[in-house]
Structures are given as structure tokens and as C-alpha cells.
Write a structure and sequence with these properties.
By secondary structure, this protein is of the alpha+beta class. It is 35% helix and 27% strand. The chain has 15 helices and 25 strands. The strands form six sheets. The chain has an eleven-stranded mixed beta sheet with strand order 3-9-10-16-13-12-11-24-25-23-22, sandwiched between helices. Strands 18-17-19-20-21 form a five-stranded mixed beta sheet, sandwiched between helices. A three-stranded antiparallel beta sheet has the order 4-8-5. A hairpin with a 6-residue loop joins strand 1 and strand 2. Helix 3 crosses helix 7 (183-203). The radius of gyration is 26 Å and the shape is globular. The protein starts with a helix and ends with a strand.
Length: 495
Amino acid sequence: MAKELKELTKRADNYSQWYNDLVIKADLAEQAPVRGCMIIKPYGYAIWEKMQAQLDKMFKATGVQNAYFPLLIPKSFFAREAEHVKGFAKESAVVTHYRLKTSDDGKSIIVDPDAKLDEELIIRPTSETMIWHTYKNWIHSYRDLPILCNQWCNVMRWEMRTRPFLRTSEFLWQEGHTAHATKEEAENEAQKMLKVYADFAEKWMGVPVVQGVKSETERFAGALNTYTIEAMMQDGKALQSGTSHFLGQNFAKSFDVTFLNKDNKPEYVWATSWGVSTRLMGALIMVHSDDNGLVLPPQLAPVQVVIIPINKGAEQLYAITAKLQPVINKLQELGISVKYDDADNRRPGFKFADYELKGVPVRLVMGGRDLENNTIEIMRRDTLEKECVSFDGIVERVQTLLDDIQKNIFNKALKYRDAHIFPCNNYDEFKERVKEGGFFLCPWDGTAETEEQIKNDTQATIRCVPFGFDQNVEGMKDMVSGKPAVSRVIIARSY
């Protein structure tokens, strides 16, 4: 059985299948009976809870408060923001009736044709329309601003091609929606939240990201600017891992949300929205994991340390447990999550394979000989290195090791990412190399026509105009059109 657990498709053989295998075998999620939806299993949800808890803490540190808005949105709300509805029309699920009834023959349940809604309701694909309808009642004066709201919820977007965590019809996320008195304040808020996302990705997930701004064709429907963090997966593809949008006054105008400024004159409110979703789970899996299973950053691992006794008989188990219990207590006092697995219904070999598959960062093992010698075996999941060490000082050793693992997996991912960012000015070269993956830093003429051609020719898209890269394009020409470049962009294939 332990061997069976480890039978994952190799990344080099089929990266996509490796990912699907790992989601299932590591007990993260499974397909739901509803097409395009998934069931997040307890272990997968525990990781999401840790993500959620840390992000929530970071949001609140900036002054954001949580609220909750309805799942169902009147269709007429969408009709009020043309760009927004255009962006989500094809993905929107619609509720048309409010009642079921038993069929005339009593053998089945049917939709009651007499229970048709006067106005159809949209299952939220995102909540801008509902929230800005609400804000009209909340905002009257500059004294009511800013409003900094976030909600944790589920959304529905009727996707045709789905993959667990990466793209599902229903997914979990947070969506922040803020209202401001000035353009500058709103722009600053959108960029501030992008930095929150980047800090979380790098410091907690161990995932290096490129921050930047989306092109006009790639930005959020109804936004003036969309800021993004882009992460590189092990196959060289990009994953958009969080976005923050400067919405200008578009939604305020659509829903007539005005305020009296300090001069007692009416103005439209300025807005932002920003969100990350369970897609982060996909990033976590694909950036760090290996052919043996998950590799989890200690900061987000549901179980950070697993301790497994190997004993002959109840008496020896009692002695090993007595030896280990003070260590368990001290680790827990330090806020480290520990599982002591003394269950006798699974062999040690199975346990080793299972916890390795599930990415538990540190494994401690103590047997009868260790008990006699005052030693303990310690293994780190990121490198699979194990050694037999003195039992004395094991708490401090584990604490240091967890910190080292967190740093190591980030540095490994960063090294890989940086080695696969390629400056490129030649389109023929680009078309060949992009098939192998990577981020290509290319001069761009700023036109949608060029962007569309790249997409049609290569299936790659402009991920962003990146921050932190030299944007001096004087004398540079677009590799496709030959026209003068206006910026350098990151182009990549993506999930």
C-alpha cells in the first residue's frame, strides 16, 4: 500500500497528469458530481484555512473589515455596467425559477413552470454590482469614506475546461471592494493590496512572483488598471496568482454613487477591487512539489512535524511516548503543529510514504535503539535528507529546521524562476523557445493587434508590464510589428 501511494506520474513524463494525480493522492480534493466543481477534502481545506487566516490578518492590518453580500444578484444590476457584463456574460449561471414540485405521476421532481422569477438572478461571478448598489446607501459625504470591505465567499463562473484548484466553475476566494474620495487614494489602495498579495506569496507560500500591470485587453472587465502577481510553475508556465484593480469611477457612475466633498459639492466615488482564490492552492502544489508528492512550506503546512514511534510491544511504546511527550508539548507551546502517530493499524513504512506524499515538512522517528542511545531520526521533506541526531536540543533543532525549509523552498523556486526569464527581441526565436516554457521579456508596441497575433501564433499571452525591470525602451522595436516599443512585457504560456 505504501508503494501504491507513491505511484505518481513523473513530472518529466506528463506534468499535467502529475498535478492531477497529486491532487487526488495527497487527499487535497476530488471531482464533485456537479460538472466543473470539486470537493475540497479536509487536508486540502486545512491548507486553505491557513492561507485564509494569514491573508485575513494582513488585510485587517491595513484597515480592511470583513462583510458579507448576497450570492444572488438581480440581472438588472449587471446591465448597468456594460464592460463588466460583457466580461462575465458567457460565464454567468442564471436562476430562473424559485420552486420545484412533484410531477403529475408522482415519480419525479420537476421545475414548477408557475414559479418563474419576475427577474432572473445571477449566481455571483464577482460582486462589484451588488456591492456598489449597496454602497449607494452607505455613502453620502466625504466623512463616510474610505470604505474598506472584504468578503470571503464562493463564486460561480461556468467554465468549460476545468482543473482542480486552477480553474473550476465554483471556487472559494476573497474579494476586497474599497471606496475612496480621490483618484490618488484609490490608486494607492490598489497598489498597496498588490504588495500585500506579493508579500504573502513570497513570505508564506514561498512562491516568488513578478508584479506588474496588465495590458488593456487582459485587464479586469470594467477596470481602468489591473495589477497582477505572476508566478512561474515548474513547467515554465505562468499562473496569475492575484489581481488588484483600479476601477476609477466606472461603477460609481453606473450605480450613481456620489458624495459631498469638503466644499459641499457632489463627486463620484473612486473604487478598487482585489482578490485571490483557491487557485493559490494550485500554485503551491506546482511550484514546490516533486515526484514523491507535496512539498509544503512550513508556514502553511497543516501538520508541520509528524512524530512516529517504532516499537515492539506496549511497554516500549509507553517508554517512547513518555520520552517524546515533553518535546511535543514544547513544540506546541512554540506554535508548531505536531502530530504524534502511534496508531497500530498502519505500518511505519506506510506512514513514512503517506506523510511524504502529503508534504509534512519535518518527520521525527524514534525506535527502541534510539531510546537506549538518546537519539532520534530527523528528516526534512524538501530535500529528503535524514540523519540520526542527539535527542538533546531536538526542539531547537526542529525550530531552526522549519525556518530553513521555508527559506530553502523559496530560494529554490526563485533560482528556477530567474533562470527562466529570457530577454528576447527575435520573434522567430521566441516562437520556438516559448514552447519549452519560461517568461520572455520582450519589447512591445502597445497595440492590441500585436498582442492578438502573439496569442494566435503561440498560445502565449502578455502577462504584464513588469515592475522591477528596466523599462527604458529607447531605440527598441517590437519583435512582431517592427514598430517602436513603448514598454517591455513578460510574455508566457499560462494556466
